[in-house]
Task: inverse folding
């Protein structure tokens, strides 16, 4: 194989590993959202006035965070990662080495494009998830500061 194919294959491997890391981060954030949601739900029973409203807003925002987490964790279909039958490249005749390599490069390039698109979607969802969770945490902190008695 050519050095160009090896380099492209290495880059695609890195991007696929990045997708796995993004999925781990989204799962960890979803777990944190769930814990924060449970905490906020336990606080709402004794809250009154503006403290109760802040907790209700935090709960609503945490629902949005959980929906964003589901979007980030939604499985992505990358399609086939390459052909396995060299005869499928040129029909019934066996192609030469250059035709096989060119076809493999084209398949790998299209795989790279799909992986980049999925990584971009997940990166955006992760950023939104972090922002939304931070806002909910800030609202819960404000509700705690407005609380007349310590809990």
Result:
């Amino acid at each position: 194989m050519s050095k160009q194919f090896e380099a492209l294959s290495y880059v695609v491997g890195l991007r696929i590993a990045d997708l796995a890391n993004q999925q781990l981060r989204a799962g960890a954030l979803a777990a944190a959202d769930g814990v924060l949601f449970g905490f906020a739900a336990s606080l709402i029973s004794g809250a009154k006035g503006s403290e109760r409203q802040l907790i209700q807003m935090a709960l609503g925002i945490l629902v949005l965070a959980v929906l964003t987490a589901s979007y980030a964790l939604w499985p992505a279909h990358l399609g086939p990662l390459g052909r396995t039958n060299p005869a499928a490249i040129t029909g019934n005749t066996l192609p030469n080495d250059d035709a096989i390599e060119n076809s493999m490069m084209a398949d790998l390039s299209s795989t790279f494009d799909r992986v980049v698109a999925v990584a971009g979607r997940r990166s955006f969802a992760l950023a939104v998830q972090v922002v939304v969770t931070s806002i909910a945490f800030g609202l819960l902190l404000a509700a705690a500061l407005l609380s007349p008695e310590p809990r």
About this structure: The chain has a mean pLDDT of 81. Helices lie at 3-43, 49-73, 87-90, 97-146. The chain has four helices and no strands.
